[in-house]
Structure to design on (390 residues):
């Protein structure tokens, strides 16, 4: 079974791994994309489908809980051998390489960006370990395939030098589009006719697409588990620990607060979805952490206002100018831009948090620029948008 909307990515990753083992071609893969885009689930499906056919040992490591070099190598060694002998850092590194190079192995490193934080601030040590990992396919004679999974869209470029004998093949998972989310959610709703109406599903898909396309948030919103969305939005992506393992959806992984479901439950309507979103955005903690696309929108508006040198108290920009700059920013960031309607939903997200207001086709800033920058909480994004020519 392949995840809906991820058929192309599934085939590409499957072909890369198959070709590597069949032709003894050293292979590393960098899978990257926004949270909730199906990266981990797709990799697990590919590995499970191929492991017997290609006779390799799968080794799955979530790097979010690893803090030291020795812990990293010991974790790999244990996952493959089930041997929990206490080893020093150097012993663990040697034994890990020995067992990896002795058999076909697919090493999956989920949330690989956490490895840059190994041993506190020793960045050079952390980066040297990452480089070593991506050399394993070559040094093992093609016996090891390394698959890194990251939410950072430029992770490999930042960590790995461009002049390397072998760079990983990059597989990009774009955020789910509105259409893909509708297909996924409609299939989900069919399992429970009393969950939501078709109109509610379509509205939920539009709103989630405008945030960042995280399908897990859509599941939670339809299941009335808005506390999951609040927690996800409150936490910094670089600091949070994974809440679920495997292929289960978040709404199934969190126990219900009630002991049994009500037999008289009626399907959620579009009004219920709007009310749930309003409750979420009324939380001060949530409004302090804005989703990806609304952050891009806000950074673009700041850029447009500064370029016009407006000194008005209530500064405004046209939706047309915003759309033009927003598309340029998405292209530069190598992410799929929202369509016209979904972009309006992203603007509405900022209106709900009282950062913006709408007057016909004009977008008004309701806070000063310095406050807006603080809301974005992403200097790299602000600088990136600021460097784009009008």
């Amino acid at each position: 079974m392949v995840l809906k909307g991820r058929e192309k990515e599934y085939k590409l990753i499957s072909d890369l791994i198959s070709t590597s083992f069949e032709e003894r071609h050293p292979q590393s893969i960098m899978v990257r994309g926004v949270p909730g885009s199906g990266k981990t689930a797709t990799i697990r499906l590919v590995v499970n489908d191929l492991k017997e056919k290609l006779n390799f040992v799968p080794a799955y490591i979530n790097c979010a809980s690893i803090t030291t070099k020795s812990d990293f190598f010991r974790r790999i060694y244990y996952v493959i051998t089930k041997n929990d002998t206490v080893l020093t850092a150097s012993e663990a590194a040697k034994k890990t390489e020995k067992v990896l190079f002795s058999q076909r192995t697919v090493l999956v490193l989920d949330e690989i960006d956490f490895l840059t934080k190994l041993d506190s601030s020793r960045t050079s040590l952390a980066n040297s370990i990452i480089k070593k990992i991506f050399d394993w396919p070559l040094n093992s004679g093609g016996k090891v395939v390394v698959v890194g999974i990251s939410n950072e869209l430029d992770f490999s470029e930042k960590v790995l030098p461009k002049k390397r004998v072998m760079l990983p093949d990059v597989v990009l998972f774009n955020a789910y589009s509105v259409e893909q989310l509708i297909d996924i959610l409609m299939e989900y709703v069919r399992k429970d006719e009393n969950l939501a109406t078709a109109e509610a599903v379509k509205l939920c898909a539009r709103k989630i697409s405008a945030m960042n396309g995280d399908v897990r948030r859509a599941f939670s919103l339809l299941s009335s588990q808005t506390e999951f969305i609040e927690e996800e939005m409150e936490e910094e992506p670089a600091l949070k620990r994974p809440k679920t393992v495997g292929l289960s959806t978040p709404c199934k992984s969190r126990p219900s607060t009630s002991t049994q479901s009500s037999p008289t439950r009626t399907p959620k309507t579009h009004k219920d979805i709007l009310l749930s979103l309003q409750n979420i955005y009324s939380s001060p903690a949530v409004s302090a952490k804005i989703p990806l696309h609304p952050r891009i929108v806000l950074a673009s508006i700041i850029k447009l206002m500064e370029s016009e040198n407006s000194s008005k108290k209530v500064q405004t920009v046209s939706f047309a100018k915003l759309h033009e700059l927003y598309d340029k920013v998405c292209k530069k960031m190598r992410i799929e831009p929202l369509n016209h309607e979904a972009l309006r939903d992203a603007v509405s997200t900022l209106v709900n948090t009282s950062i913006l207001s709408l007057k016909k086709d004009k977008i008004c800033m309701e806070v000063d620029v310095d406050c807006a920058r603080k809301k974005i909480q992403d200097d790299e994004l602000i600088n990136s948008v600021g460097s784009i020519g009008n």
In short: The first helix runs from residue 7 to 22. The chain is about 50% helix and 10% strand. Confidence is low (pLDDT under 50) at residues 226-231, 233-262.
